[in-house]
Design the sequence.
């Protein structure tokens, strides 16, 4: 089984407890940046997991892990320990405010994709987006695949996580 941990909590809804292993909280991020752990933290977490013997790589802002189904519980335990170790175990719960940030960002992405001729699913209202976020989220890029997604990211760098333009 391949597990992909993106820095983006909006898509994967990665949650954590309180910030630990750090003496103070990081500065409050705003806009789409508030939806991501830093690339540096994600790289450190990937290194930590690899040091624990897991088959992981850090690719395009995400930790990609090849984990046998039976080992998933141990992998997630090690992942939590690594998050504590590298300072990436912060509360990233998707509150309505964070979901609204994701919506605003997705609207920007949708506008750019449309301007470049890509087909984008119909945009829901903010209320509908919030209601369906955990079950069937609207992703303006969900119908773009393969080489086309590479071109779409070049056309619309707003699609890339902050720091990964």
Sequence:
């Amino acid at each position: 089984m391949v597990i992909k941990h993106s820095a983006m909590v909006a898509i994967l809804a990665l949650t954590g407890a309180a910030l630990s292993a750090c003496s103070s909280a990081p500065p409050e991020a705003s806009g789409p940046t508030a939806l991501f752990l830093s690339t540096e933290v994600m790289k450190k977490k990937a290194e930590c997991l690899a040091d624990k013997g897991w088959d992981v790589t850090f690719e395009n802002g995400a930790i990609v892990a090849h984990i046998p189904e039976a080992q998933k519980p141990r992998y997630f335990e090690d992942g939590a320990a690594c998050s504590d170790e590298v300072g990436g175990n912060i509360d990233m719960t998707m509150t309505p405010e964070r979901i609204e940030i994701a919506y605003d960002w997705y609207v920007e992405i949708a506008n750019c994709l449309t301007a470049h001729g890509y087909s984008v699913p119909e945009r829901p209202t903010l209320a509908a987006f919030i209601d369906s976020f955990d079950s069937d989220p609207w992703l303006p890029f969900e119908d773009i695949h393969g080489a086309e997604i590479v071109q779409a990211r070049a056309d619309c760098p707003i699609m890339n996580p902050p720091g990964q333009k």
